[in-house]
Each structure stands twice: as C-alpha cells, then as structure tokens.
Automatic annotation (TrEMBL):
Family in the record: Belongs to the LysR transcriptional regulatory family.
Coiled coil: none
PROSITE patterns listed in its UniProt record: HTH_LYSR
Keyword line: DNA-binding, Plasmid, Transcription, Transcription regulation
InterPro entries reported for this sequence: LysR-type_TF (IPR050389), LysR_HTH_N (IPR000847), WH-like_DNA-bd_sf (IPR036388), WH_DNA-bd_sf (IPR036390)
Name of the protein in question: LeuO homolog
Organism (species): Salmonella typhimurium
Length: 100
C-alpha cells in the first residue's frame, strides 16, 4: 500500500468510522452505533476517500461493500484500532491496580 500525502489529516475518528461502516454494512447502522448522524458518516467517508484518491466503497442495494483498496485499508486500520484499544486497556488496568 502506497503512503498518502496527507497522512497527518487522518485521525482516529476517521479510522473508527471506516471500520464501523465495514462492520455494520451501511452508514445508517454505523451512525447509530457511533451515536452520530448518517451525514457525519458520509462526510467522514468522503474525507477519507479524498485523502486516498480512490473509491473505498461500492454502493449496492444491500449497503456499502469495501472496494479492493477498502479491504486492504481495513486490514491496516483494524490492526491500528486493536493496538490502540489494547494499549488504552493496559494503561487503564495499570492505573486501577495502582489505586489505593
């Protein structure tokens, strides 16, 4: 996967939206799960797509299906999410064990 020019413009929320849309299969369910509007989901996906300069989803009657680029990006983003969540859980566990 080639690096993007504006990597600094990608934040955790974009990654989480992308992952949730793939997991849920459509923007409406992803919006409900993330407690945001469907318009916010659409804007995030458009922003991410513009950063990569490629279609990341294919619209079907059943919802959004990741393109081949979207599938490979999802693998990378899923690993990043798992790493971040694991690190945060480890830090929280360590803080709780140090409390009196």
């Amino acid at each position: 996967m080639r690096p993007i020019k504006n990597a600094k413009k990608i934040d955790y929320n974009l990654i989480k939206v992308f992952d949730t849309v793939i997991t849920e299969g459509n923007a409406t369910r992803a919006a409900r799960k993330l407690d945001v509007t469907p318009a916010a989901i659409s804007q995030a996906l458009l922003r991410l797509q513009n950063l990569y300069g490629e279609e990341l989803f294919i619209r079907t009657r059943k919802g959004l299906v990741p393109s081949s680029k979207g599938k490979s990006l999802h693998q990378v983003f899923r690993q990043a999410i798992e790493s971040i969540e694991s690190t945060l859980c480890d830090k929280t566990d360590a803080q709780e064990s140090n409390e009196p």
